[in-house]
Design goal:
Length: 343
């Protein structure tokens, strides 16, 4: 059956949105930049479930590797840059198959502290992708999207607080429940001159979605979060990632002639390249998360995703998060079963 013009336009728009999502675009304002709120301020979110029924959680995990370079080859007075590449271990069936981490893992077994420090620098950095409504926003945003269902890139520090409440057996409903869910408040403070979110918390009082929020869900629908993860690298891209990794470890500059077709530093523009607004490589938004802009008089702020929960050292075994994840899944299943029996 032939498609109508409206259906063709809708499909093209969906493909464009998916393409921008996979690139991690920040330009359209769909990602809420909570790292930009001022110290001492708070933002309140209402998380929503994933549109993917096979996802047991209301988030997806994202893992990136930072590759620092001394500068950009061919540019005078070039400053150091960071390129972020996807770690393939975030994809199903690819556990322990990352060619970069395969080289990094043995560094943690060496008695040389320098190698361990290097290993931490090149180890994958996790973050977690959620969706939901911003119910209280302390910022004035230059660009607010028409769709109020925003995406949130959450660091391990905040994620552990999100997950912690799910471990409470007294939790009656899923926090994403439309009628009896819970809001999550992100509090930004400072600790030792760095951004700190350890006082963030779930609200105790349940609440239902507002009429406006329900209308937004009817109009725009839930997002399939996995569509906004980086795409699985091809064999060619994996080879480029390894080449870039080795060059980074050797202290070389980023070579745009070799690599810009595949991965770029945040904000990079070639001599003959003009990137459309909102269209960047995966490196760009990830770097933006890792290094939020800081006012001149503010204390230095580091990446909130600098903490990782599976760096292979004696006091942080890789198996620990997996065990916690299984327990969280048990709690979620228990809540779902309880809701079914009482409905």
């Amino acid at each position: 059956m032939a498609l109508t013009l409206a259906e063709i336009r809708a499909r093209l728009q969906a493909q464009e949105s998916k393409s921008q999502g996979n690139s991690g675009s920040f330009g359209d304002g769909s990602v809420y930049p909570h790292w930009n709120i001022e110290e001492g301020e708070s933002a309140k979110f209402r998380f929503l479930p994933d549109a993917d029924p096979s996802n047991n959680y209301f988030w997806v995990e994202r893992a990136m590797i930072k590759l620092p370079f001394a500068g950009i080859k061919g540019q005078v007075d070039s400053k150091p840059v960071i390129v972020q590449v996807p770690c393939i271990e975030m994809f199903p069936g690819q556990e322990n198959k990352c060619p970069i981490l395969a080289q990094v893992r043995p560094w943690f077994k060496d008695k040389d502290k320098t190698l361990e420090d290097m290993g931490r620098k090149y180890w994958k950095k996790k973050s977690y992708l959620f969706q939901g409504f911003v119910r209280e926003n302390p910022m004035k945003e230059d660009k607010v999207p028409e769709n109020p269902i925003r995406r949130f890139i959450i660091s391990p520090q905040i994620f552990n607080l999100v997950k912690g409440a799910l471990m409470d057996p007294e939790l009656e409903n899923l926090p994403t429940d439309y009628q009896a869910g819970l809001d999550f408040v992100i509090n930004k403070t400072a600790k030792g001159g760095y951004a700190d979110y350890s006082t963030s918390k779930w609200m105790r009082k349940e609440s239902s979605l507002t009429t406006e929020e329900v209308a937004a869900l009817d109009k725009f629908g839930l997002l399939t979060l996995s569509e906004f993860l980086p795409k699985m690298p091809t064999a060619e891209e994996l080879a480029i990632m390894v080449e870039m990794f080795e060059a980074s470890v050797d202290g070389q500059a980023y070579d745009p002639d070799k690599w810009s077709k595949y991965f770029k530093p945040a904000g990079f523009r070639g001599d003959d390249e003009t990137a459309p607004a909102g269209k960047t490589t995966e490196s760009a938004p990830a770097a933006k998360v890792a290094a939020p802009p800081v006012a001149a008089k503010a204390a230095p702020v580091v990446a909130e995703d600098e903490e990782d929960d599976d760096t292979p050292v004696a006091d942080a075994p890789v198996a620990t998060p997996a065990a916690s994840g299984s327990r969280a899944e048990d709690i979620l299943a228990m809540i779902r079963n309880r809701q079914k029996t009482t409905s």
